[in-house]
Structure formats: C-alpha cells, structure tokens
From TrEMBL:
The chain crosses the membrane at residues 18-35, 42-64, 70-90. Signal peptide: none annotated. This is Transmembrane protein. It comes from Leptosia nina. Pfam families: TMEM234.
C-alpha cells in the first residue's frame, strides 16, 4: 500500500452497511428481550422462524434482493401466522 492509501473503504461503501447492521442489532435486542419474557420452548422457535421472514422483507426493502413475488409473500404470511398460532397457545 502506498503512503496515501487508506485501509478503510470509501464512505459510500461504509454507509451501505449501516442500515443492515442497525436492523441486525435491533433484532438481537428483540431476541434477548423475548427470551427473557417467554418460555424458551416458544421464544427460540419463534425467533428462528421469524428471522427468515424478516430477512426476506429487509432484503426486498433495502434492494439487496429482488422484490418479493407472490410465493415469497405467501411464505412470509404462513411463517407469521404459524408463529402467531404457536404464541397464542401460551397467552
């Protein structure tokens, strides 16, 4: 590396990682709060299944993936509905 070259990526490259990182951190906080308040037998499967739904939605919204087609939307709806039904059992 030359004297004037930086090991850091340009600002526009770094800023493209901020939103996904913030979403990831928020998800981690929600996961920890859920585990503290709900039985592990419900919290862990719910968090793991919803991670797929949130990943698909976030990827489509941020433009890192193609927009969701009808099959993907149906899959997200089924995941959320199944998680809801599992959580209704303990309420």
């Amino acid at each position: 590396m030359g004297l004037h070259q930086s090991i850091h990526p340009p600002r526009d490259k770094r800023s493209s990682y901020v939103l996904p990182w913030l979403i990831n951190q928020a998800g981690s906080l929600v996961y920890l709060m859920t585990i503290q308040r709900m039985p592990l037998s419900i919290a862990v499967p719910a968090a793991n299944s919803l991670a797929f739904a949130f990943t698909a939605i976030t990827a489509a919204v941020t433009g890192s993936e193609e927009p969701l087609d009808i099959v993907a939307v149906l899959g997200v709806i089924l995941i959320v509905a199944g998680t809801f039904l599992c959580c209704m059992d303990i309420v």
